[in-house]
Amino acid sequence: MTRDPAPRATPRPDPKLSELLGGRAGAVDATVPVVAFVLAWVLAGWAGSAYPINWGAGAAIVSGAAVAVWRLARGRKPRAVLFGLAGVIVAAAIALITGRASDFFLVQIVSNVGSALAWAISVVVRWPLLGAIVGGLLGQRTRWRRDPDLLRGYQRASWAWVCQYAIRLSVFLPLWAANEVVLLGLARTVLSPLLVGLSVLVSWPLLRTALPDDHPGIRHPR
After folding, report:
1. Can you list the residues of the chain whose pLDDT is less than 70?
2. What are phi and psi of 109, to 5 degrees?
3. Residue-level pLDDT at 24
4. What is the rounded CA–CA span in Å between residue 34 and residue 171?
5. Alpha-carbon span 216 to 105, nearest angstrom
6. d(CA 54, CA 57)
7. Shortest CA distance to 204 belongs to which of 19, 40, 38, 3?
């Protein structure tokens, strides 16, 4: 009597990049201090305060600290929470030192410049950051890089992230130069999450264009 062959395990489908990269919590955390700064700065100006930047900076730090406490209570990693709060404190300090409200956004602008360069360089040197991030989240370490098709796909998809940082800078820099604080706050609150969402959305189709039909997917580098 022969035994029936054991059924083959069905490979798990690829996870959505939005699941790996996503999470709305980070976008909310970053947006709350920005909204608090702009609102406090505007209201203090309308009220005739001689130091509206002080009010804006104080509101940003207080709201950032409140978000940090909330996230720590919800079990988020302390390092990520404290790093975000430190960014808010540095941004507020810069605005207070320079006396220019739009300088609150300098940290964000410099960060975008650095990110655009880092993503572009990573593609050129064949260590695309999207592959490093996704591969790390999937526990692959550098195995993804030994798959020529997957490497090429991550390179193509990484250009979407370079473009979104370039678009941000094309909007932020003129507004910062013109000291348009309200518009900067609006762009930071609306444009940045929108561009990140679009980058996540187009990354998967771009990645798939480099993979042959018989490729097992990002979970299984060949």
Report:
1. 1-28
2. -65, -45
3. 53
4. 16
5. 43
6. 5
7. 19
Nearest to 91 by CA among 63, 69, 71, 117: 63
DSSP 26-51: HHHHHHHHHHHHHHHHHHHHHTT-S-
Buried b (16+ CB within 10 A) or exposed e, 81-112: beebbebbbebbebbbeeeebbbbbbbbbeeb
- Whose tokens are 């604080």? That residue is 181
pTM to 2 decimal places: 0.82
CB 160, CB 203: distance < 8 Å: yes
User: pLDDT of 2-60, one tens digit each?
Assistant: 454 544 444 555 555 655 565 555 566 778 999 999 999 999 999 888 889 999 999 99
Q: Which two tokens stand for residue 140?
A: 């692959």
CA angle 156, 169, 85 (to 5 degrees): 100
pLDDT score of 12? 52
Predicted local confidence at residue 8, as pLDDT:
46
